Amino acid sequence: MTRVGFVGLGIMGAPMARNLVKAGFAVAGYDRNTDAVARLAANGGTAARSIAEAVRDAEIVITMLPADPHVEDVVFGPGGIAGHIEPGTLFIDFSTVKPETSQRVARRFGEQGVRVLDAPVSGGEAGAVDGVLSIMVGGAQADFDAAKPVFDAVGKVAALVGPSGAGQFVKAANQLVVGGTYALVAEAIVLMEASGVDAEAGLEVLAGGLAGSRILELKRKSMLARDFTPGFRIDLHHKDMGIVLDAARQAEVALPFAGQVAAFVQSARAQGLGDADHSALLAVTERLSGR
Ligand code: NAD
Protein backbone atom coordinates (compact mmCIF):
# COMPACT_ATOMS: atom_id res chain seq x y z
CA MET A 1 0.00 0.00 0.00
CA THR A 2 1.47 3.36 -1.00
CA ARG A 3 1.52 5.77 1.96
CA VAL A 4 0.27 9.31 1.27
CA GLY A 5 0.41 12.33 3.56
CA PHE A 6 -2.36 14.80 2.63
CA VAL A 7 -2.50 18.38 3.97
CA GLY A 8 -5.58 20.54 3.25
CA LEU A 9 -8.91 18.72 3.57
CA GLY A 10 -11.29 21.48 2.40
CA ILE A 11 -13.94 21.56 -0.32
CA MET A 12 -11.57 19.93 -2.81
CA GLY A 13 -9.00 18.15 -0.64
CA ALA A 14 -11.52 16.15 1.42
CA PRO A 15 -13.12 14.31 -1.52
CA MET A 16 -9.74 13.89 -3.25
CA ALA A 17 -8.30 12.24 -0.12
CA ARG A 18 -11.40 10.04 0.10
CA ASN A 19 -10.92 8.92 -3.51
CA LEU A 20 -7.29 8.04 -2.77
CA VAL A 21 -8.48 5.87 0.13
CA LYS A 22 -11.01 4.19 -2.19
CA ALA A 23 -8.23 3.51 -4.71
CA GLY A 24 -6.20 1.67 -2.06
CA PHE A 25 -3.75 4.33 -0.83
CA ALA A 26 -3.01 4.58 2.91
CA VAL A 27 -3.82 8.26 3.51
CA ALA A 28 -2.78 10.19 6.62
CA GLY A 29 -4.61 13.54 6.52
CA TYR A 30 -3.97 16.82 8.30
CA ASP A 31 -5.93 20.08 8.29
CA ARG A 32 -6.04 22.85 10.88
CA ASN A 33 -9.79 22.19 10.92
CA THR A 34 -9.96 19.14 13.18
CA ASP A 35 -13.50 18.22 12.01
CA ALA A 36 -12.15 17.71 8.49
CA VAL A 37 -9.45 15.38 9.84
CA ALA A 38 -12.04 13.40 11.81
CA ARG A 39 -14.21 13.04 8.69
CA LEU A 40 -11.27 11.58 6.73
CA ALA A 41 -10.59 9.10 9.55
CA ALA A 42 -14.27 8.08 9.48
CA ASN A 43 -13.87 7.44 5.74
CA GLY A 44 -10.96 5.03 5.99
CA GLY A 45 -7.99 7.43 6.27
CA THR A 46 -5.79 8.10 9.28
CA ALA A 47 -6.04 11.26 11.38
CA ALA A 48 -2.74 13.14 11.67
CA ARG A 49 -2.40 15.66 14.53
CA SER A 50 0.30 17.69 12.81
CA ILE A 51 1.97 18.19 9.46
CA ALA A 52 4.92 16.15 10.76
CA GLU A 53 2.62 13.24 11.56
CA ALA A 54 1.04 13.34 8.09
CA VAL A 55 4.42 13.44 6.37
CA ARG A 56 6.18 10.78 8.49
CA ASP A 57 6.87 7.63 6.42
CA ALA A 58 4.89 8.97 3.45
CA GLU A 59 6.12 8.03 -0.03
CA ILE A 60 3.96 10.77 -1.54
CA VAL A 61 3.09 14.09 0.13
CA ILE A 62 0.15 16.11 -1.20
CA THR A 63 -1.11 19.62 -0.46
CA MET A 64 -4.46 21.17 -1.44
CA LEU A 65 -4.47 24.63 0.14
CA PRO A 66 -6.23 27.93 -0.65
CA ALA A 67 -3.43 30.24 -1.80
CA ASP A 68 0.30 31.13 -1.84
CA PRO A 69 0.69 32.16 1.84
CA HIS A 70 -0.88 28.86 3.00
CA VAL A 71 1.43 26.81 0.76
CA GLU A 72 4.51 28.81 1.88
CA ASP A 73 3.50 28.34 5.51
CA VAL A 74 2.67 24.62 5.29
CA VAL A 75 5.79 23.85 3.25
CA PHE A 76 8.46 26.12 4.76
CA GLY A 77 6.91 27.50 7.98
CA PRO A 78 7.70 26.27 11.50
CA GLY A 79 6.75 22.59 11.77
CA GLY A 80 6.26 22.56 7.99
CA ILE A 81 6.73 19.80 5.44
CA ALA A 82 10.31 20.83 4.54
CA GLY A 83 11.52 19.94 8.04
CA HIS A 84 10.13 16.40 7.90
CA ILE A 85 10.04 15.18 4.30
CA GLU A 86 12.62 12.55 3.27
CA PRO A 87 14.80 12.73 0.13
CA GLY A 88 13.25 10.76 -2.74
CA THR A 89 9.68 11.55 -1.65
CA LEU A 90 7.30 12.78 -4.35
CA PHE A 91 5.60 16.07 -3.42
CA ILE A 92 2.46 17.02 -5.37
CA ASP A 93 0.88 20.46 -4.83
CA PHE A 94 -2.66 20.47 -6.22
CA SER A 95 -3.27 24.06 -4.97
CA THR A 96 -3.68 26.95 -7.42
CA VAL A 97 -0.81 29.36 -6.71
CA LYS A 98 1.50 31.72 -8.59
CA PRO A 99 3.85 29.92 -11.01
CA GLU A 100 6.82 31.47 -9.19
CA THR A 101 5.66 29.94 -5.90
CA SER A 102 5.60 26.48 -7.53
CA GLN A 103 9.05 27.14 -9.02
CA ARG A 104 10.43 28.25 -5.64
CA VAL A 105 9.05 25.13 -3.93
CA ALA A 106 10.54 22.93 -6.67
CA ARG A 107 13.94 24.62 -6.36
CA ARG A 108 14.10 24.44 -2.55
CA PHE A 109 12.83 20.84 -2.42
CA GLY A 110 15.15 19.93 -5.29
CA GLU A 111 18.08 20.88 -3.01
CA GLN A 112 16.69 18.34 -0.48
CA GLY A 113 16.36 15.58 -3.11
CA VAL A 114 12.56 15.80 -3.03
CA ARG A 115 10.75 15.42 -6.39
CA VAL A 116 8.09 18.05 -7.05
CA LEU A 117 5.05 18.47 -9.29
CA ASP A 118 2.68 21.45 -9.46
CA ALA A 119 -0.69 19.96 -10.35
CA PRO A 120 -3.59 22.43 -10.12
CA VAL A 121 -6.97 21.02 -11.02
CA SER A 122 -10.21 21.96 -12.71
CA GLY A 123 -13.65 20.40 -12.38
CA GLY A 124 -14.93 21.96 -9.16
CA GLU A 125 -16.28 20.23 -6.10
CA ALA A 126 -18.40 17.89 -8.26
CA GLY A 127 -15.30 16.83 -10.20
CA ALA A 128 -13.41 16.20 -6.96
CA VAL A 129 -16.26 14.15 -5.49
CA ASP A 130 -16.66 12.07 -8.65
CA GLY A 131 -12.88 11.67 -9.15
CA VAL A 132 -12.98 13.21 -12.64
CA LEU A 133 -10.78 16.30 -12.26
CA SER A 134 -8.64 17.71 -15.07
CA ILE A 135 -5.07 17.97 -13.81
CA MET A 136 -2.48 20.38 -15.29
CA VAL A 137 0.99 19.28 -14.35
CA GLY A 138 4.37 21.00 -14.28
CA GLY A 139 7.56 19.07 -13.57
CA ALA A 140 9.68 16.19 -14.88
CA GLN A 141 8.34 13.33 -17.02
CA ALA A 142 9.62 10.61 -14.62
CA ASP A 143 7.84 12.25 -11.67
CA PHE A 144 4.66 12.67 -13.71
CA ASP A 145 4.80 8.95 -14.55
CA ALA A 146 5.33 8.10 -10.86
CA ALA A 147 2.29 10.23 -9.91
CA LYS A 148 0.02 8.55 -12.47
CA PRO A 149 -1.76 6.25 -9.93
CA VAL A 150 -2.60 9.32 -7.81
CA PHE A 151 -3.89 11.24 -10.84
CA ASP A 152 -5.96 8.22 -11.92
CA ALA A 153 -7.58 8.08 -8.48
CA VAL A 154 -8.66 11.75 -8.40
CA GLY A 155 -8.95 12.71 -12.05
CA LYS A 156 -10.04 11.84 -15.56
CA VAL A 157 -7.43 13.77 -17.55
CA ALA A 158 -3.88 14.60 -16.48
CA ALA A 159 -1.41 16.30 -18.82
CA LEU A 160 2.23 17.21 -18.32
CA VAL A 161 2.37 20.70 -19.81
CA GLY A 162 5.98 21.73 -19.12
CA PRO A 163 8.56 22.23 -16.35
CA SER A 164 7.86 23.44 -12.79
CA GLY A 165 5.25 26.20 -12.75
CA ALA A 166 3.80 25.24 -16.15
CA GLY A 167 0.74 23.66 -14.56
CA GLN A 168 -0.06 27.00 -12.91
CA PHE A 169 0.08 28.90 -16.22
CA VAL A 170 -2.42 26.45 -17.76
CA LYS A 171 -4.62 26.74 -14.67
CA ALA A 172 -4.53 30.55 -15.08
CA ALA A 173 -5.79 30.11 -18.65
CA ASN A 174 -8.50 27.81 -17.29
CA GLN A 175 -9.62 30.37 -14.71
CA LEU A 176 -9.79 33.07 -17.36
CA VAL A 177 -12.16 30.93 -19.45
CA VAL A 178 -14.23 29.92 -16.40
CA GLY A 179 -14.55 33.50 -15.09
CA GLY A 180 -15.37 34.84 -18.54
CA THR A 181 -17.97 32.15 -19.09
CA TYR A 182 -19.68 32.91 -15.76
CA ALA A 183 -19.72 36.63 -16.58
CA LEU A 184 -21.34 36.01 -19.97
CA VAL A 185 -23.84 33.42 -18.69
CA ALA A 186 -24.81 36.02 -16.07
CA GLU A 187 -25.39 38.62 -18.80
CA ALA A 188 -27.42 36.09 -20.81
CA ILE A 189 -29.66 35.42 -17.78
CA VAL A 190 -30.17 39.14 -17.08
CA LEU A 191 -31.00 39.77 -20.75
CA MET A 192 -33.51 36.94 -20.98
CA GLU A 193 -35.24 37.72 -17.68
CA ALA A 194 -35.43 41.44 -18.47
CA SER A 195 -36.93 40.59 -21.87
CA GLY A 196 -39.69 38.54 -20.26
CA VAL A 197 -38.75 35.21 -21.84
CA ASP A 198 -38.56 31.85 -20.06
CA ALA A 199 -34.91 31.95 -18.94
CA GLU A 200 -34.94 28.33 -17.72
CA ALA A 201 -36.02 27.04 -21.13
CA GLY A 202 -33.67 29.53 -22.75
CA LEU A 203 -30.61 28.26 -20.84
CA GLU A 204 -31.57 24.68 -21.59
CA VAL A 205 -31.54 25.33 -25.32
CA LEU A 206 -28.27 27.30 -25.03
CA ALA A 207 -26.72 24.36 -23.20
CA GLY A 208 -27.47 22.10 -26.19
CA GLY A 209 -26.00 24.42 -28.83
CA LEU A 210 -22.64 25.99 -29.62
CA ALA A 211 -22.95 28.17 -26.49
CA GLY A 212 -23.08 25.03 -24.36
CA SER A 213 -20.50 24.53 -21.57
CA ARG A 214 -19.96 22.54 -18.39
CA ILE A 215 -20.94 25.69 -16.51
CA LEU A 216 -24.31 25.81 -18.26
CA GLU A 217 -24.74 22.08 -17.70
CA LEU A 218 -23.86 22.03 -14.00
CA LYS A 219 -24.75 25.48 -12.73
CA ARG A 220 -27.72 26.89 -14.63
CA LYS A 221 -30.32 25.66 -12.14
CA SER A 222 -28.50 26.98 -9.07
CA MET A 223 -27.83 30.30 -10.83
CA LEU A 224 -31.50 30.75 -11.76
CA ALA A 225 -32.41 29.94 -8.13
CA ARG A 226 -29.76 32.49 -6.95
CA ASP A 227 -28.19 29.75 -4.86
CA PHE A 228 -24.59 30.93 -4.49
CA THR A 229 -23.41 28.35 -1.94
CA PRO A 230 -19.72 27.57 -2.69
CA GLY A 231 -18.39 25.58 -4.65
CA PHE A 232 -15.58 27.85 -5.54
CA ARG A 233 -15.36 31.06 -3.57
CA ILE A 234 -15.15 34.48 -5.22
CA ASP A 235 -12.09 35.17 -3.00
CA LEU A 236 -10.25 32.26 -4.61
CA HIS A 237 -11.23 33.38 -8.11
CA HIS A 238 -9.95 36.85 -7.23
CA LYS A 239 -6.59 35.30 -6.32
CA ASP A 240 -6.63 33.43 -9.65
CA MET A 241 -7.40 36.52 -11.73
CA GLY A 242 -4.39 38.18 -10.08
CA ILE A 243 -2.29 35.26 -11.34
CA VAL A 244 -3.78 35.68 -14.84
CA LEU A 245 -3.00 39.41 -14.97
CA ASP A 246 0.55 38.92 -13.61
CA ALA A 247 1.20 36.18 -16.18
CA ALA A 248 -0.10 38.42 -18.99
CA ARG A 249 2.16 41.26 -17.89
CA GLN A 250 5.20 38.97 -17.68
CA ALA A 251 4.46 37.49 -21.10
CA GLU A 252 3.86 41.01 -22.50
CA VAL A 253 0.49 40.15 -24.02
CA ALA A 254 -2.65 42.28 -24.05
CA LEU A 255 -5.73 40.44 -22.70
CA PRO A 256 -8.48 43.06 -22.49
CA PHE A 257 -11.24 40.66 -21.43
CA ALA A 258 -9.08 39.24 -18.64
CA GLY A 259 -9.03 42.75 -17.14
CA GLN A 260 -12.81 42.96 -17.34
CA VAL A 261 -13.34 39.57 -15.73
CA ALA A 262 -10.91 40.56 -12.96
CA ALA A 263 -12.88 43.78 -12.40
CA PHE A 264 -16.15 41.83 -12.10
CA VAL A 265 -14.63 39.47 -9.55
CA GLN A 266 -13.17 42.46 -7.67
CA SER A 267 -16.59 44.10 -7.64
CA ALA A 268 -18.17 40.94 -6.23
CA ARG A 269 -15.64 41.03 -3.36
CA ALA A 270 -16.26 44.71 -2.76
CA GLN A 271 -19.98 43.95 -2.51
CA GLY A 272 -19.37 41.44 0.29
CA LEU A 273 -19.61 38.32 -1.87
CA GLY A 274 -16.06 37.02 -1.21
CA ASP A 275 -17.31 33.84 0.43
CA ALA A 276 -20.06 33.24 -2.15
CA ASP A 277 -19.69 30.89 -5.12
CA HIS A 278 -18.19 32.48 -8.24
CA SER A 279 -21.54 32.07 -9.99
CA ALA A 280 -22.48 35.09 -7.81
CA LEU A 281 -21.09 37.20 -10.68
CA LEU A 282 -24.79 37.07 -11.62
CA ALA A 283 -25.62 39.25 -8.60
CA VAL A 284 -23.01 41.82 -9.69
CA THR A 285 -24.40 41.87 -13.23
CA GLU A 286 -27.96 42.33 -11.96
CA ARG A 287 -26.97 45.27 -9.77
CA LEU A 288 -25.40 47.00 -12.79
CA SER A 289 -28.91 47.13 -14.27
CA GLY A 290 -30.61 48.02 -10.99
CA ARG A 291 -32.31 44.63 -10.85
P1 NAD B 1 -10.92 25.42 1.01
O1 NAD B 1 -10.73 26.74 1.65
O2 NAD B 1 -12.27 24.77 1.04
O3 NAD B 1 -9.89 24.33 1.64
C1 NAD B 1 -8.59 24.62 2.03
C2 NAD B 1 -8.27 23.81 3.29
O4 NAD B 1 -6.92 24.11 3.68
C3 NAD B 1 -9.17 24.19 4.48
O5 NAD B 1 -9.75 23.01 5.01
C4 NAD B 1 -8.19 24.84 5.47
O6 NAD B 1 -8.52 24.58 6.83
C5 NAD B 1 -6.89 24.17 5.08
N1 NAD B 1 -5.72 24.95 5.50
C6 NAD B 1 -5.43 26.24 5.23
N2 NAD B 1 -4.26 26.61 5.80
C7 NAD B 1 -3.81 25.50 6.45
C8 NAD B 1 -2.67 25.25 7.25
N3 NAD B 1 -1.74 26.20 7.48
N4 NAD B 1 -2.51 24.00 7.77
C9 NAD B 1 -3.44 23.05 7.53
N5 NAD B 1 -4.55 23.22 6.80
C10 NAD B 1 -4.73 24.45 6.27
O7 NAD B 1 -10.39 25.58 -0.48
P2 NAD B 1 -10.77 24.67 -1.76
O8 NAD B 1 -12.01 25.21 -2.39
O9 NAD B 1 -10.67 23.22 -1.37
O10 NAD B 1 -9.54 25.05 -2.72
C11 NAD B 1 -8.22 24.54 -2.54
C12 NAD B 1 -7.38 24.94 -3.75
O11 NAD B 1 -7.95 24.34 -4.92
C13 NAD B 1 -7.32 26.44 -4.03
O12 NAD B 1 -6.04 26.79 -4.46
C14 NAD B 1 -8.36 26.65 -5.11
O13 NAD B 1 -8.05 27.79 -5.91
C15 NAD B 1 -8.24 25.35 -5.89
N6 NAD B 1 -9.45 24.89 -6.60
C16 NAD B 1 -10.67 24.95 -6.02
C17 NAD B 1 -11.79 24.50 -6.72
C18 NAD B 1 -13.19 24.56 -6.13
O14 NAD B 1 -14.16 24.37 -6.90
N7 NAD B 1 -13.36 24.77 -4.85
C19 NAD B 1 -11.65 23.99 -8.02
C20 NAD B 1 -10.37 23.91 -8.57
C21 NAD B 1 -9.28 24.36 -7.85
TrEMBL record:
Q: Where is the 3-hydroxyisobutyrate dehydrogenase-like NAD-binding domain?
A: 165-284
Pfam families (UniProt xref): NAD_binding_11, NAD_binding_2
> In what residue span(s) does the 6-phosphogluconate dehydrogenase NADP-binding domain sit?
3-161
**Which GO-annotated molecular functions does the record name?**
2-hydroxy-3-oxopropionate reductase activity
Q: Recorded E.C. number(s)? A: 1.1.1.60
Question: Which keywords, in A-to-Z order, does the entry hold?
Answer: NAD, Oxidoreductase
According to the UniProt record, what class of enzyme is this? oxidoreductase
Q: Which family does it belong to?
A: Belongs to the HIBADH-related family.
Identify this protein by name.
Answer: 2-hydroxy-3-oxopropionate reductase
Give the originating organism. Amycolatopsis thermalba
Q: What is the lineage of its organism?
A: Bacteria, Bacillati, Actinomycetota, Actinomycetes, Pseudonocardiales
